[in-house]
Amino acid sequence: ESDTASEISFQFNKHKKTPSIGSHSSDMASVSSVSGSVLSVYSGDFGSVDAQGTVEFALDYDEKNREFQVHVSQCKDLAVVDEKKGRSDPYVKTYLLPDKARMGKRKTSVKKRTVNPIYNEVLRYKIEKMVLLIQKLNLSVWHNDPLGRNSFLGEIEVDLASWDWSNRKLNWYPLKPRSLSAVNGVDHRGVMNLSIKYVPPGSLGKMCPRNPPSGEVHIWVKDVKDLLQLRPSGVDSFVKCYVLPDTSKKSYQKTRVIKRDTNPVFNHTIVYDGFHTEDLKDACVELTVWDHEKLTNHFLGGIRLGLGTGLSYGISVDWMDSTQEEVAFWQEMMSASNEWIEGLLPLRSL
InterPro entries annotated for this entry (predicted)? Predict the structure, then answer.
């Protein structure tokens, strides 16, 4: 059924009650840092402040240095966040979309106690012009709160493919409220086609030459559709797999790299043994898709298969956060032993 297969043991001492969630491997550390960056574009108190005012900026591309430059000049008539003190402490933040994590965010300094901040700062991105032209610029204004959550003050989104690059002048643009899809974190990253099944201990009968003494979870990663296109040539992608809370090298598996394809076919099966039926309530299969480059890999999206209870072996964990679709998929596998359960699940930023 697949051209490659991996078989590894699920290693976790559930009696110990101290999973090593604080000492993730380097791969998991990179997932955490990237997802934090991705989610920060949605963070903030959206309900308490209405977006208003304008922002003045200019865009330029430095051909010699292959650098995209955002000249942030100033803002006017921003919303007041702290009405009692009549103050806002605004700063400007930018992302290149659709992949916020790849290029990262840039931001200006914070200007305190003003709704008319003056910045005169340049935010820079080292990026090829051809790649830039398939991006969108998201420029947003935020109130800085060092003791709480930053508040969203307004944004503008620029399609760089249709931008007039001969226009290097500073211009004023009205700030708009965050769209409903952005507030809800809707962020299309592609769809994973996969099948899973659970084989309970000893369920295949004594006559079966491969009757597992402990349970097994089989994960068949078939293909992924509509990945983020990071380069004009496509994307060089592969899939990583962990069974959380185990983040050791024994838990880690990955597929081969499929080059220059936003619809890669992996056809890769992974088998984890050492599973008792009760472990299915506390474990979580994390599948993440990455773009492969020489110096560093870039996170594209992922899914987490589990019950989404927020708990693992009685301990609160942030990765037990499966969506309704992911929970339903996992529950169907638990209720149908020895049967392949097929699913088509959207990738998310985790």
Answer: C2_dom, C2_domain_sf, SYTL1-5_C2B
Spans of the chain below 70 pLDDT = 1-48, 99-102, 179-188, 203-212
- The domain segmentation of the chain, as residue ranges, is 48-182, 190-347
- pLDDT (tens digit per residue) in 107-132: 999 999 999 999 999 999 998 888 88
Q: Within a 13 Å sphere around the CA of 252, how many CA atoms are in the beta-carbon half?
A: 8
- Does the predicted TM-score (pTM) go above 0.85? no
Q: Cα–chain-centroid distance for residue 200?
A: 33
Q: Which CATH architecture has domain 190-347?
A: Sandwich (2.60)
Please give the class, per CATH, of domain 48-182.
Answer: mainly beta
Question: Fold match between 48-182 and 190-347?
Answer: yes
